[in-house]
């Protein structure tokens, strides 16, 4: 992509998408509490029309800890493997996926990588159906 075409997300905030996001998140009491306490942040980008991206965010100006991108990629590969019947969704697998993402647990991440393998990770990250990741 031409770097000249890259624009900051804050310049494509969409008021309707913003209203919908806020309404949906605030309809859940626990999420509303977390948002108000600055313990939850959400950002979404609508790329259904790549030439006209839309952005909305909650607590988008507050720095918060999030799971690392490799862990998100590992989760995607695990979910793909489960859908393809290559990995069985056991209670242990579900627990490790939750720990890996919600607690950024490195040991759980390592176990998930061992389960799916590096070849599966590479295949998912380069699969055209997931082309928004690269």
Q: How would you sum up this structure, described in words?
A:
The chain has 134 residues and is mainly alpha-helical. The chain folds into two domains: 3-58, no CATH class; 69-127, no CATH class. The protein has six helices and two strands. The protein has helices at residues 15-26, 29-36, 69-83, 91-102, 106-116, 118-125, and strands at residues 42-46, 54-58. It has a two-stranded antiparallel sheet. The protein starts with 14 loop residues before the first helix and ends in a 9-residue tail after the last helix. 13% of the residues are buried. The model has no long low-confidence stretch (mean pLDDT 89).
